[in-house]
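Handout, section 4.2: multi-component inputs.
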Amino acid sequence: MNIAILGAKGMLGIDLSTVLQQHTLTLLDIGYGDITKSTELREILTLKQPHVVINCAAFTRVDDCESQKELAVRINGLAVADIAEICKDINAALIHISTDYVFDGTHENGYFEDDIPSPINTYGYSKLVGEKILQGEEIEGRKIDTQELKWYIVRLCWLYGKSGKNFVDTMIEVMKKNQEVKVVTDQWGKPTWTMDAARQIQLIAETLPESGIYHVSNEGIANRFQWVSKIKEVLALHTILIEGHSSDFPTPAKRPMYSPLVNTKLPPMRSWDKALEEYLS
Ligand SMILES: NC(=O)c1ccc[n+]([C@@H]2O[C@H](COP(=O)([O-])OP(=O)(O)OC[C@H]3O[C@@H](n4cnc5c(N)ncnc54)[C@H](OP(=O)(O)O)[C@@H]3O)[C@@H](O)[C@H]2O)c1
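Output:
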């Protein structure tokens, strides 16, 4: 199959390229395949004629999105309309990557695919713009007809992987440099390895199920303290971990406190701690 990956040099994009290597891949990133330059993107994709386009390109620096809302909405939201129009014209399916941050983090049972999003920061709002566009809704002055398009919104959460700045690698560095480290106990989610997420996205790309929203995460819920405790255990580090609270670490963007994604449509993935053990081995 011929597959194009947008944002192919990002943390997820690189692991997707590995997992999908038996296919013919077109790897695009900001230098060649900027998703906000629709004419150039159309030329490339029309030339390559992919069967499936996977959009991993995004403005992912959550705190920076607060001060750069227009850019965040353009990259994470409005560009999705242009990508979708191109996919319709070349008859390609579109797998668009989204996030648990479209939710406010107040549901005590986590979030099902059809729960109504209610973002609490600009990044989450900008990603929701992309989701609504694919669902054919009008937002930010843009509306497109997606009935003729096979589209997939794939929400991920708490990603880590070897090719990008991520919480796991940051905490390993912090633990190696400090005798005591404070970690919050009040943020809950599903830590997810990009390789496992990529294999689940591969399944969608190869089977093209019904258009709609899909949740992809390793199974099991953890708070950040439990996550770091597991890293410490696997690596046999001697750092003392101290329980903290989000208010100890003020950030420009608010985070959803409890945003595990519930997957009711795809085969279940392995547990987050097993995936983490393999990542760290
Ligand atoms: N990381 C997480 O915890 C997490 C959680 C849930 C969902 N997600 C979603 O998962 C997807 C992949 O995230 P990731 O963690 O792999 O992020 P990432 O490492 O930041 O990758 C995103 C890539 O997109 C590129 N990019 C930015 N603007 C672009 C543009 N205008 N045109 C083309 N490429 C552009 C970035 O380039 P530069 O680096 O040069 O900007 C980067 O290579 C995103 O949709 C993100 O919203 C991530």
